[in-house]
Specification:
The protein has twelve helices and 17 strands. It is an alpha/beta fold and 367 residues long. The protein starts with 11 loop residues before the first strand and ends with a strand. The relative contact order is 0.16.
Length: 367
């Protein structure tokens, strides 16, 4: 039985499923907002349940998400669990009439993602996905510059997120394709794809030609204390590095790289380079997610001379901004909900599907 919602609930009552790093970010973000109350959490780890229930004075704590979404007072939930659970939890919650904010990627593949979007449309509820890296201050500043026409028409971009030793929890669900949907391309590459298409103005992807490599992970290499438990409960069955040549509508090109492990510089790199008809830009965040602001340079010409300059950006607000946008959409009422049905995240999932197919079949795949 689904819930009925007024457009402006006095207090928005939310629940969080999953209390790993991502779930904790959602939890913190909700508790900072006026008119929002976290009334329930669900997780398999009893110690985390007790810890966060006490820390945030949360009325209800469940070891089963199925029990949590049955809570009558809930308006919305965050889903911050392994990727294979995104679709079943989101769909069940949407059918209950709840709004859903899911961690990325949308699902293990486009087919699953499409069922989530269809469920959101059928329920008339919000389905948002946490693409927190597009909320970086440097990416937002570059977006303003591109949108203002400072670079002219962008025609070529190259973007990456690559690590030296960053396989997350080597031997965990992250390295099992049935549970995760893929390796770094699905995990961090989806962020790169998202912020790249966002910066370029959401051009349609026409085709992809991709390759994947699995050279270090299967040998027990590429993990470190920060990223991995070093306990092998699953075989390493995903890629540890991927690259893709992506053709865009209008003749543009995007080159994308995503890697958990490679013999390269010690610090992670998140970057974006773009060439336009009237200028170019380069963003480099050495240290990646631990570098709140990267180095942003703009390349221009004036009166036949180089007129390059640096841009200083403020740190972004990451998951706080994601959660605020989600709450804003929910509070916006039915006229807004239809624009938040998960379809943007679905476009990302379909591109990733095409990349994996291209790598398997060693050919270009049209979308």
């Amino acid at each position: 039985m689904s819930k009925q919602h007024s457009a402006q609930p006095e207090t928005l009552k939310v629940g969080v499923v999953g209390l790993g790093w991502a779930g904790q970010q959602h939890l913190k973000a909700y508790t900072k907002l006026e008119g929002v109350q976290v009334v329930a959490i669900a997780a398999m780890e009893q110690d985390l349940l007790k810890q966060f229930q006490a820390e945030y004075s949360i009325p209800h704590a469940y070891s089963r998400w199925e029990d949590m979404i049955g809570l009558e007072e809930l308006d919305a939930i965050s889903v911050a669990v392994p990727t294979f659970l995104h679709a079943p939890i989101a769909i069940a919650a949407l059918e209950r009439g709840l709004h859903v904010l899911s961690e990325k990627p949308l699902a293990r593949n486009g087919e699953e993602g499409r069922t989530m979007v269809e469920a959101a449309r059928k329920a008339g509820r919000v389905l948002d996905v946490a693409f927190n890296h597009r909320r970086r201050g440097d990416i937002q500043k570059l977006k303003e510059i591109v949108d203002d026409g400072e670079l002219g028409r962008p025609y070529y971009a190259k973007a990456s997120w690559i690590r030296r030793s960053g396989i997350p929890m080597l031997g965990s669900w992250f390295t099992n394709p049935e549970l995760a949907g893929g390796g770094p391309l699905a995990d961090i590459g989806v962020h790169v794809l998202d912020y790249s298409l966002h910066l370029l103005g959401e051009p349609k992807v026409l085709s992809v030609s991709a390759s994947t490599h699995s050279e270090l992970g299967p040998r027990g290499l590429g993990g470190n204390q920060r990223y991995t438990a070093m306990k092998s409960s699953h075989k390493f069955e995903v890629e540890d590095f991927a690259s893709a040549f992506i053709r865009l509508e209008g003749g543009g090109t995007l080159i994308l790289e995503a890697g958990w492990a490679a013999y390269r510089d010690e610090d992670d790199l998140l970057d974006f380079t773009v060439f336009g008809t009237d200028g170019g830009a380069e963003l480099r965040a050495v240290g990646a997610s631990n570098a709140p602001v990267g180095h942003l340079r703009i390349f221009k010409e004036k009166d036949g001379e180089n007129a390059d300059y640096k841009v200083v950006a403020e740190p972004g607000r990451a998951h706080q901004a994601v959660v605020e946008d989600f709450v804003g959409a929910v509070r916006g009422g039915e006229t807004v909900w239809g624009a938040h049905d998960g379809s943007l995240a679905l476009t990302r999932a379909l591109v990733l599907d095409a990349c994996y197919q291209s790598a398997r079949e060693q050919r270009e795949v049209r979308l």
